[in-house]
Every structure is written in C-alpha cells, then in structure tokens.
Amino acid sequence: MSFIDSIKDRAKRNKKTIVLPESMDRRVLEAAVEVMREKMADIILIGTEEEIEKNNPDLDLSQATIINPADSPLTETFIEELYELRKEKGMTKEEAERLLKSDYMYYACMLVKTKRADGIVSGACHSTANTLRPSLQIIRTKPGAELVSAFFLMIVPNCDYGYNGTFVFADSGLEQNPDAERLAAIAASSAESFKLLTLEEPVVAMLSHSTMGSAKHQDVDKVVEATKIAKEKYPQYKIDGELQLDAAIVPEVARSKAPNSDVAGRANVLVFPDLDAGNIGYKLVQRLAKAEAYGPICQGMAAPVNDLSRGCSKDDIIGVIAITVVQAQ
Q1: Spatial CA neighbour of 296 closest among 170, 191, 178
Q2: Using one digit for the tens of pLDDT, what is the confidence trace for 135-187?
Q3: Could you give the CA distance from residue 17 to residue 205 in angstroms, rounded to a whole number?
Q4: How many CB atoms are closer than 10 A to CB 260?
Q5: Are 296 and 174 spatial neighbours (Cβ–Cβ below 8 Å)?
Q6: DSSP assignment, residue 141?
Q7: 3-state SS of the chain: helix, strand, coil percent to 5?
Q8: How many H helices and E strands in the chain?
Q9: Are 272 and 207 in contact (CB under 8 A)?
Q10: Alpha-carbon gap, residue 111 to 118, rounded angstroms
Q11: Per-residue pLDDT reduced to its tens digit, 203-241
Q12: Under DSSP, is residue 102 helix (H, G, I), strand (E, B) or coil?
C-alpha cells in the first residue's frame, strides 16, 4: 500500500465532513465524486445546485450536500455571527452579508466555526491569501499554537532518504521570512504534523547553506538561534542544525560534515530558512523527481483548513481531502 493510500484508508475508518467552496472548478467536483464513492468523507459544496448540475451533467453529485448562500436558512444566522466575531475590527452587518453571499470561503469557514463541518479544502482556483485570510479571521489558531504555518507532504518515488521517500517540507506556503522564534515554532508544528500523518518519529533538520559553522552570515545566525530555541522549547523532538540539505538526508555526507548529530543523514522533516527556499525546494523535487506534493497543508489552525496549488490535479485534491480528514480525526 502506498503512503497516500494508507492516509485514504485512515480517512475511511473515521469519516468527517469536508467543505469544498470551489464548486465552480471541475477538478474539485471530480475529486468530490471520487471521495464520496470511496467513502473517505462526507462533502459539502458551496454554490447553486442549478449551476453545478448545468455545467457538470455527467457527474453524480447526489450524495453531496449543496448549500447556496443566497437562499440557505443558515445565512441569516451566519451574518449575525460573523458580525459579532468581527465587529471590533470594523465589520458591519452589511459587509458580513456581502462576504458570505459573494465569497464562498467565508461561508465555508462559518460552517466549520459552528461545527457543521470538520474541515475545508480550497485553493484550486483561488490564491493562498483568499483561502487563509477568512480562515485566520474566523477559525483562528488553536489553543497553544504560536502561529499558523504551512507544509507540503512530499512523497518521492524510488527514494531511500527520509521515511521511505516521505518528507514534510516547511514552511513552503505561508511564512515569508520567519525570525528565529517563529522558525523554531514551525519546526515543532512540522514535527507534530509528520508524526500525525506517518505515525513515525519525526527527525527535523533546520536547513541552511552552512553545516555546523562552515559559513558565517546573518542568515546562518538565524537558523543557529532557531535550532537552539527549538531544542530548549521542544525537547520531545529530534531537532538539529544548521545543516545543508545533503548533510541532512545523506548518511555518507552526514558522517563527514556532522558526525556528532543524531539528525544528520536521517532527517524526514526539512525546515527551510524562508518561504523562497521552501517554495523553490518543493517545486524542484515535485517536477524533477516526479514527487507527489500535497499542500500547502496548514498547521496551527483551530480546525483543518488546507490550501491547494492552482496547478493541482484531481488526484492531488483527493489526497489533500484525505489528509484533512485525518487531521480532523
């Protein structure tokens, strides 16, 4: 059984309700049909039944719940609740009504906030900001979380590194240039996410262009400080750095460059120093190694809300829905 198949199997064992606000995207609807057929999740689509059926007459969406914000009996309740949540930030009832009826992501967030659904998958035809802004405003961070960050679950074929070719790459989707404190928090969240999804021990490498003092630069200093903070605050995880990528995952290189590290050569969670590195890194591995890349998967949110790359396929969406169900469990 492949890794993503094991995630799908776990999803089926404890089915959750996932909202898909992008009912206007054919890939999303095709994924919804497959997810419901395989009994991985119950699906709520936001949109108008007439438009969905007219544009996709060949798809059997009879098992999905379709909610039209324009005429749903929930809408008036949601307008009042969204206004109460955001009035201190200047939101009016008119603005709450406009957002809920025109931006389906806001409606999806209200379904999760009021526990009528367990998670959201969006981003197939909207930017990360469109997905995450309403989520941070309405669902917010979970208790004890220092920040919301994002990772990609990477599954590299024919790869002996990491956990049988499976890695978490973070932050690859949200935090532009985290300082040392935030980088340490990303490391801990990513370790927790790796353990949740793989059921294996996370081994976390704090990546840099330097290994254990081989280069001097303020960018290296940040990673060194983040590693120190992470080790002190999160002693339950194996975390080390600063490490170059080859020293982090290749045992032979690790023996030469970082012989005293219990992480070097074994890392399965790769924490990048900034978003540029993380985003470029995951795309390189996805395209050149033909890896499966699921994400950006959010961590630190009070309920699972996961983004999609706008270049995603139907199978990518199915995988992210399954991951979202497992997070919600």
Answers
A1: 170
A2: 988 998 888 888 899 999 999 999 999 999 999 999 988 888 999 999 999 99
A3: 34
A4: 7
A5: yes
A6: B
A7: 45, 20, 35
A8: 13, 11
A9: yes
A10: 8
A11: 999 999 999 878 888 888 999 999 999 999 999 999 998
A12: helix
- Choose among 157, 149, 112, 163: nearest CA to 134: 112
Amino acid identity at 205: A
Burial classification of residue 58, based on how many CB atoms lie within 10 Å of its CB (0-12 exposed, 13-18 middle, 19 or more buried): exposed
Which amino acid is located at 313 in the chain?
S
Task: Quickly count: other Cβ atoms within 10 Å of residue 77's Cβ.
Answer: 12
Kindly report the backbone phi and psi dihedral angles of residue 51, in degrees, each rounded to the nearest multiple of 5, phi listed first: -65, -45
Give 208-219 as a 3 state SS string. Answer: CCCCCCCCCCHH
DSSP per-residue letters across 32-46:
HHHHHHTTSEEEEEE
Contact of 110 with 79, CB cutoff 8 Å: no
First to last CA, the chain: 21
> Residue 276 above 90 pLDDT?
yes
Q: What does the alpha-carbon distance between residue 234 and residue 100 come to, in Å, rounded to a whole number?
A: 40
Report the distance separating Cα 268 and Cα 19, nearest Å: 30
pTM: 0.86
Length of the chain: 329
Domains and CATH numbers, the chain: 3-140+312-328 (3.40.50.10950), 149-288 (3.40.50.10750)
